[in-house]
Write a structure and sequence with these properties.
Elements (H helix, E strand, L loop, with lengths): L2 H15 L6 H17 L4 H17 L8 H17 L14 E6 L6 H14 L4 E6 L4 H14 L12 H15 L3 E6 L7 H13 L4 E7 L4 H14 L3 E5 L8 H10 L3 E5 L7 E3 L2 H8 L5 H11 L2 H12 L5 H14 L2 H7 L7 H5 L5 H12 L3 H5 L6 H11 L3 H23 L12
Parallel strand pairs: 1-3, 1-4, 2-3, 4-5, 5-6
Antiparallel strand pairs: 6-7
Helix pairs in contact: 1-2, 1-4, 2-3, 3-4, 4-11, 5-6, 7-8, 9-10, 14-17, 17-19, 19-20
The chain binds guanosine-5'-diphosphate.
Guanosine-5'-diphosphate binds next to helix 5.
């Protein structure tokens, strides 16, 4: 997500940091580079123009904050402006009104509507709601079938639409069935076309006139950049959308759609799809996305994810150890167990700020879950003394550990190497002031 833009902005700000004091000229020059970076990220031209004008004005007219260096101040202005561009704050779904709440998903074919419908149903179910999935794409029997399969996967009932029904009748009858079946959230998956088309719009408008829609979410493939924004604008004019879901964000290195759609349509991005699995849907947080764009990683997301499974005291203890360079193999084992609960290692690494710049990590082989299990076995075959001081693990101990864990000396070596690499990495993070006693770090 946003990698290209991040790289570009980072090098721009690095230059700024080299200046003790910033002149208007320095700022203008930096803004020229930011402008190019945004245009290369496929951000809407008008949006870029306004963005740069606003940042320049604020950066130049800014009062000097003694706690920040001039370079940091510019980064802060850009950060705040990016947050605003992305929509200021996360916009939750409107679920409190008349029940059942009806959510309609609309968008072009292949944008990810059906997948998003199932992902959304799963999230709502986990929050204690009773969702009901409704396939209203009567032109493609496969689309109805696809929603039935996904519904089963997420354990959410699916309305039995047929291709003989009219979409508006499906919507009306499904809402009635939701009332009698005590479902509180109806999610309607509509038909898509390859291009915006009047017949499709008329069909969607008819549904919106007939059933009370709490949300009309426009679903778009983020990878289509400005096209997604143009189509969103058209849907918003014809249909009055309430929010946007950008799918396939995990593969979108540029971010043009995400950065333009709120400004162009006035409607917030409510969710982003970050993978094909039914779990891969995230509430969109503008502040976190802005931090991510500026290369700060998604610290808050990481903390939230960690907090869900990691005991807070344990996390603090660990942060202290990192501070004191006292992170042992025993802690490493502890971490592996936490990581197994949290998701894949790569997902987690990606969220740690600054980590993509650590060369030793980039060059390191990507560990997979199987490797984690092996690593765990190897550390478990070490004595407590060895776990607390890896330096004593000589050749003969390595042979013993390999035998004990049913692995090879080469594999033991690999674990020790990745552990020492991790130690180095932690020192690096500390040097950058990123790890600080387990506290949340703000800009
Ligand atoms: P629809 O025609 O709008 O209903 O689109 P589908 O839900 O059938 O999705 C089209 C394709 O995009 C499918 O192969 C999905 O698995 C894929 N897809 C949907 N959302 C995401 C996402 O967030 N990330 C990735 N990588 N693929 C996605």
């Amino acid at each position: 997500m946003f990698e290209n833009l991040t790289d570009r902005l980072e090098s721009t700000f690095k230059k700024l940091r080299g200046h003790g004091r910033l002149t208007e000229e320095n700022i203008q020059e930096a803004m020229g580079e930011v402008r190019t970076a945004l245009l290369e990220a496929d951000v809407n031209f008008g949006v870029v123009k306004e963005f740069i004008a606003s940042v320049t004005e604020k950066a130049i007219g800014r009062e000097v904050l003694t706690s920040l260096s001039p370079g940091q101040q510019v980064v802060k202005v850009v950060h705040d402006e990016l947050v605003e561009l992305l929509g200021s704050q996360a916009e939750p779904l409107k679920l409190d009104g008349r029940q059942p709440v009806v959510i309609m998903l609309a968008g072009l074919q292949g944008s990810g509507k059906t997948t998003t419908a199932a992902k959304l149903a799963k999230q709502l179910k986990e929050k204690g709601r009773a969702p009901f999935l409704v396939p209203a794409d009567v032109y493609r029997p496969a689309a109805i079938e696809q929603l039935h399969v996904l519904g089963e996967q997420v354990g959410v009932p699916v309305y039995a639409s047929t291709t003989e029904q009219k979409p508006v009748d499906i919507a009306r009858q499904a809402v009635a069935e939701a009332r009698t079946g005590h479902y509180d959230t109806v999610i309607i998956d509509t038909a898509g076309r390859l291009h915006v088309d009047e017949a499709l719009m008329a069909e969607l408008q008819e549904i919106s006139r007939t059933v009370p829609l709490a949300e009309v979410l426009f679903v778009a493939d983020a990878m289509t950049g400005q096209d997604a924004v143009t189509v969103a604008d058209k849907f918003n004019t014809d249909l009055e959308i309430t929010g946007v879901v950008l799918t396939k964000m995990e593969g979108d290195a540029r971010g043009g759609a995400a950065l333009s759609v709120k400004k162009v349509t006035g409607k917030p991005i409510k969710f982003v799809g970050v993978g094909e699995s039914v779990e891969a849907l995230e509430v969109f947080h503008p502040d976190r996305a802005a931090s991510r764009i500026l290369g700060m990683g998604d610290v808050l997301s990481l903390i939230e994810k960690a907090e869900a499974v990691v005991d807070q005291k344990n996390a603090e203890r660990l942060a202290k150890k990192i501070q004191k360079n006292a992170f042992t193999l025993e802690d490493f084992l502890d971490q592996i167990q936490q990581i197994k609960k949290m998701g894949t290692l790569e997902q987690i690494m990606g969220m740690i700020p600054g980590i993509n710049k650590l060369k030793q990590l980039k060059d390191a082989p990507k560990p997979d879950q199987k490797e984690l299990v092996k690593t765990e076995a190897i550390i478990r075959s070490m004595t407590l003394k060895e776990r607390r001081n890896h330096r004593i693990i000589d050749a003969s101990r390595r042979v013993r550990i390999a035998n004990g864990s049913g692995t090879s000396v080469a594999e033991v070596n690999r674990v020790l190497k990745s552990y020492t690499m991790m130690l180095k990495m932690m020192k690096n993070l500390k040097g950058k002031g990123i790890v600080s006693g387990g506290k949340r770090r703000k800009l």
